Amino acid sequence: MLNLQAVNHFYGNQHSLWNVDLVLRPGECIGVLGREGMGKTTLVNCIAGHLPVASGRMTWHDIGAPPQDLTPLSAQSRSAIGIGYVPQDKRIFFPTQRGREPAHRPGGRETRG
């Protein structure tokens, strides 16, 4: 279970997340909706450990284990316990060429267009 309690984040003086509370139980799937600049990506990056939390608490609770405070953990440590995300950005499939053929073949040979 993922539990966020009063999580806040700032970009400099800009308060970007305001006292966010969230509970995500095992097997649940949620969507975070909002216009551009509303903090969706910031929230995900804070959960994944890519951005620091200014205040509040984030805990991870595996079944049969005590809750673990995520706040001080690095992104790598969070990934090791199963926290991560797949970005929507199309650049995760780079490099590609027209027609979605791989830009490089196995063995290091380049394709010809």
N-C termini distance: 49 Å
Write down the CATH topology.
Answer: Rossmann fold
Largest sheet data: 4 strands, antiparallel
Structure annotation, total helices:
2
How many whole angstroms does the radius of gyration measure?
Answer: 18 Å
Structural class: alpha+beta
Strand order in the sheet with the most strands: 2-1-3-4
- The best one-word shape is globular
Instruction: Return the CATH architecture.
Output: 3-Layer(aba) Sandwich
Mean pLDDT: 85
Q: Could you spell the SSE succession in H and E letters?
A: EEHEEH
Name the beta content range: 25-35%
Specify the CATH homologous superfamily: P-loop containing nucleotide triphosphate hydrolases
Helix share of residues? 10-25%
CATH class: Alpha Beta
Tell how many strands the DSSP assignment holds: 4
Uncertain runs with pLDDT below 50, 5 residues or more? none
Whole-number total of structural domains: 1
- What oligomerization state is this entry in? single chain
